[in-house]
Amino acid sequence: MSGDQDTDRYGVLLYYKYSQISNLNDIVDFYESNCSSLALLGRVRISSHGVNVTVGGKLSCLERHIEAVKANSLFEGTDFKLATCHRPLNDKVAKECGFTSLSVRIVKELVTLGSNPILKLPEISNAGKHLSAIEFHSVLQNADKESSANNLVLLDARNLYETRIGKFHAPNVETLDPEIRQYSDLPSWFEDNGEQLKGKNILMYCTGGIRCEMASAFIRSKGAGFENVFQLFGGIQRYLEQFPNGGFFKGKNFVFDHRISVGSSDPNIVGTCLLCGCSFDNYSPRCRCTYCRMLVLVCSSCQQKEAAVYACELCQKQGKAVGSLQSIEFGELKSSPPDNEFQNVSSDAVFSSQMPCGDDVRCSRKLRILCLHGFRQNASSFKGRTASLAKKLKKITEFVFIDAPHELPFIYQPPARRPHVDCVTTSLPSSPPPTMEKCTRKFAWFVAPGFDGTCGGDWKVADGPFDPLQYQNQTEGYDISLTHLKTVFSQEGPFDGILGFSQGAAMTAFISAQQEKLRGEIDFRFVILCSGFAARVEEMDCGLIKCPSLHIFGNDHGRDRQIANQASRELASIYDADCSVIVRHDSGHIIPTRSPYIDDIKDFLKRFL
User: Fold this and answer.
1) How many other β-carbons are positioned within 10 Å of the β-carbon of residue 39?
2) How many angstroms separate the CA atoms of 383 and 389, rounded?
3) What is the Rg, in whole angstroms, of the alpha carbon atoms belonging to the chain?
4) pLDDT mean values, one per 10 residues, the chain (609 residues)
5) pTM above 0.70, yes or no
6) Identified catalytic residue from 35, 61, 97, 206
7) Has 206 been annotated as catalytic?
8) Residue 142 contacts by C-beta under 8 Å, 6 or more apart in sequence?
9) Rounded distance, CA 391 to CA 601, Å?
């Protein structure tokens, strides 16, 4: 190959560096100027803690970029992973992987570890010890020769769809695959499975190394029993460069660029088709789980069959079914419902195109938020009341609305009675209530003691005048509501968060108070409590709630006549202040959508993207 031809060869460059950056704008300017001048495309993520970069272009340009980066002392010791490859052949894949443009962004975290972005991150200086590819291989190779082998465990820090096409396997060494949808789920997995790691020598690995940096620091921060954590320096990519035949790594290494995966000289296929089970490991078709949008493996033969609803392994465990696709109307997905599918579920947005955005960079999909209406409301009316909010958040959220399980009777307040001049009590002329066909059904999450659950087919006369403090006496029925929500999460989940309004906020608080107990049945990352109050039930006496929360309620001068300002303040006080945000407004019994309130709401939500 001639020298001119060699300079035209295409390549991909990956690197990260943890380093304190005091002036972010200077680094942004450098990357925008340098990458643009060299015609490099891809993603550059910059935070005060360092950079995470994946770019592609001519090899000669990538090499010039490396030299320019090395000239800055901030990047001393950076491991630049440069690989020769073909140019992007599929525009769709290139676009999803971010290789059709240059994106330089400032982010709070280079990798998002944990679903609670408000809490303090572990110190990266406490990360596990680096092992070179040769050292990592040697430890695994000698494991079956030493009595200490049973004290060794391999921990994969990647997502489930990555591990399904390749992972490490060493004789006599236990390998733990957390089977997570996204990297931020790893701490939750650790909380449930940490005992399997305690006292062990933990060998961690990921694609290129950055996820292990933060994850190993997180594990070591747990103290005694978690001191011996090691990480594969340079990740699987450096290991396969050192061991082209694959060594102890079986299958292919999933990468977050247009190459999709990189394999060794070993032709064996690890992955299998989701539907028929045949050997298959090609993610190029970009098939996705219908429910959560995670990538799934579907072979060419199964793709050609009648359009289907794909359910990934995790969604299947939650009760999601694989079935035929009935229709796609107006861009909205509609699938065949199970026998007990809800008729009272309303969604204001279609599924977003979730796509991994880079090695260890969070996806840009919309946040799915389950919305719980207030007392004597329903999904339809609450959707109408929040239309302005949904419109202003449409780029980052998808709201899903459901009815509460307790249907309420229609209450008729008779005309007031007043004494006549001759002291005879008379009624004002009465007008009949509306006909039933003009009435919409109303629901509740909590009901008053003695509620018999029957709503009848006609109006009921109110027991007395309206009581603005009636919500304090609604303390029954939450067990039925909880069972109802478990089914909703199983049928319609997953959800990133729950938004509750008024009594719906009380139900949301009730759930978040039991978040650990409900894990696996009702999983979420945050709650939004609007005009909320704490239900007077035993389960709320649980100590400080550590769930990330946004509290929105009227201030001392607000006009909320339904829920007292003090009640909402008391609810906010039982949440950990380190992971809660409070927005006070001067309006009534509403969710405000004007500035500065909407800006505060957006800031809270963006932390979970």
Assistant:
1) 11
2) 10
3) 28
4) 58 94 93 96 92 94 96 93 80 69 88 66 90 95 68 94 94 90 87 90 94 94 93 95 94 88 89 92 89 89 78 83 44 36 37 35 70 91 91 93 86 53 48 56 83 56 51 75 92 92 93 89 93 82 86 77 82 88 87 90 88
5) no
6) 206
7) yes
8) none
9) 13
